[in-house]
TrEMBL record:
Keyword Metal-binding recorded: yes
Subunit and interaction comment: Monomer.
Signal peptide start-end: none
Lineage: Eukaryota, Viridiplantae, Streptophyta, Embryophyta, Tracheophyta
PROSITE patterns per record: ENDOU (PS51959)
Assigned keywords, A-Z: Endonuclease, Hydrolase, Lyase, Manganese, Metal-binding, Nuclease, RNA-binding
InterPro entries xrefs: ENDOU, EndoU-like, EndoU_C
Gene Ontology molecular function, alphabetical: hydrolase activity; lyase activity; metal ion binding; RNA binding; RNA endonuclease activity
Family recorded in the similarity comment: Belongs to the ENDOU family.
Residue ranges occupied by any EndoU domain in the UniProt entry: 163-434
Species of the source: Platanthera zijinensis
UniProt keyword Nuclease, yes or no: yes
SUPFAM superfamilies assigned to the protein according to its UniProt record, in alphabetical order: EndoU-like
Protein name in the entry: EndoU domain-containing protein
Amino acid sequence: MESLIKGLAEAALGFVAGDREDHADHQSATEREERSRSTWAEVVSTGKHGDQQKQQGNSSYGHPSDYQRSKNDEEAGQGGSLEHNPNSWGSRKKNENQGHESEEKTDGDWEVVGQGSHNKKRNPSVPHKIPKENWQNFKMPSSEQEYTPETHYSADTRPTRSELSDLSEACNKLWELDLNRLVPGKDYEIDCGEGKKVYQKGDMASGNLFKWLDNDVFRRPTYARFCSLLDNYNPQGGAKEVVTSEERHEQAAFIQEISRTPPIKYLHNYLVDKGIASDSYEEFKEMLTHLWFDLYSRGGGYGSSSAFEHVFVGEIKGHGENAVSGFHNWIQFYLEEAKGNVDYQGYIFPRGYGEHPDSETQLLTIQFEWNGVLKSVSSTLVGVSPELEVALYTLCSFVGGEDNRVRLGPYSVNIKCYHLGRGKIGSAFPIAEC
């Protein structure tokens, strides 16, 4: 009886703390979370399955190569649904990869990315190559890895009295401190296509959202380490995550790397001044690790989700009709679109009489399909660094409320924050305020 009550309580918590943007106006309250496997490894994969090994290069900072870790034992533990159900996402992906091995080729220290079956669009100008040198080192103990020197960044990371009393000013300061933010037209270019209402059917974008992105972006240390985390999750609903020691090393190394950047240093100083975080920077980094990577239950699946997975990687949930939940990161979007797993279907018309997005816009509200599953409305910051998003969502989760109307450079934004249980981020994402 106690186990039954506990299970029902976990299921209720998972629903309440789900990504409410996903179900507020478009989904039934009875939907369960379902997840399919993260496809970052497949973006850089040669299409082979099994115990493929990540390649090691010579530089200090690396990037994901043609490695995909098999979780057959884990999937078997879930009743074999991925292997034996021909209609399951896992089975479809296995067949798709086998059918497209010929499209994926390696080219020295680069991986040539093929196109998946879900998205038939092609932008001839998109450079479907991703640098992959030496990200194997990220799997070593974090104390044995090399990081960007502290002197690489020079910025004032002490919050002012005004910023301590005004969350909007603090968030805007984080925007100013994002020295790794990309520049539209210089580092990448997007094509927003045509706009649509949320309820309108049909694809309003003739091509991909991303026309091109400079490959050197993925050589930036925080970007590379962020990407190394994206294949650590199984977004299939209810599947218990299995975290290996190497994955924990990747998590620790990512936190170590971003902790050298101004946004995270500012976050620490802010939380210390507010009496929320310890003066010890090591304890603060441990707090970030637990906050973003500790597993929790979502939709009744014990140990099946985390803040990082939900916000940045994305999950697929469904009960009768599947839906994408979370998935608010532009890097994950770019990689999945390059593979062909994301089909961009146009931007959502701004509320009121706000300006329509263009190639310079860095806050988008869009509609897309991920592996054939629709996300009718989603919002994301484009071109911002991983450290900016971690700092922004952490700050608002600790200091703000469910709605946090703030300023980020030229944008008026509502940072939505939902908690799952005590001290856990259930979801966090931006909404454009017109």
